[in-house]
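User: Hi! I'm working on a homework problem where we have to compare a predicted structure to a textbook description. Could you give me the structure for the chain below?
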Amino acid sequence: MTARCLIHIGYHKTATNWFQRSYYPAVTNRTYVHRKRVRAAFLDVHALEFSPDQALATLEVPDADGLILCEEELSGNLHNGGLQGFLSKEVAHRLKATLPDADVVIFIRSQPDMICSVYKQYIKEGGTHSPRRYLYPFDRLDPHGFSPKKTPYFSFQHFDYRLLINHYRQVFGPERVHVFLYEEFCREPQRFMDDYGHRFGLAVELAAVPQSRLNVSNKRLSLWVARKMNHFSYRNVMDKRLILNIPGMYRLRHRLVAPLLDRFAFFSGPAGPRAVLGNEIVRRIEDRYRASNRALGQELGLPLEKWGYPV
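Assistant: Happy to help. Predicted structure tokens:
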């Protein structure tokens, strides 16, 4: 009996790095495909040149049985909303054409926490804008010169999870799409992963899998300092203000300044959604997703209210 493929498409900021580096490589009865080959097969190919046979060849596997793919960019980039959803939608069809019998895994996270984490990732990657300017770029840009179809920016639609989940349910079938809550994973990771492995028939010795988190959240002070220092490094995001590029500034900030401040700035509190984004933006976020989250919870039987999702 052949094992079905498992395709873990994200979202971003839901422990996908841990799954890629620690968990899936430890699975002994499946073939884990490194994320670089997944990107090359499904994301780096022009839409009018994509071929399922070539995608399978790019994965460099003997056959399609029992593969594990895990790449959060399959759901779309967090800073450009999956190119208004065009990329996110197209990738689902590419995956279906290449691995038609796969199970699809989607992890979601409460939107205030998710968007706060996305903004912190933006700063980590070199961003300089305030939360308001980053999240609402077109409030400050001339609509005649900038529009989503020309220059994609952050998109709230990207985190309306129901849109992408329903698309995958239509493409792969409802029984092949599995949605998990990041909050449940964080609360009881050992129990969660026991159930997760059993659900998909994954053979893995959890005691040998590193449990430490790969991404540690910044404190408010280090986030502020990083944002100021980013004005002097060209890396890495396009939507930013650059005063002067000082070689080595990005590496200094990333590897030395932020870790030291997070470790020793005891007076600086954690950078939670309200502390980072402000009360007004958090309220807007909550209002933006209530109806969709409520419908998603009812349709899939997900306890979203229990875990603090806006409903």
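For your comparison, note the following. The mean pLDDT is 91. The two ends are 42 Å apart (CA to CA). Good luck with the assignment!
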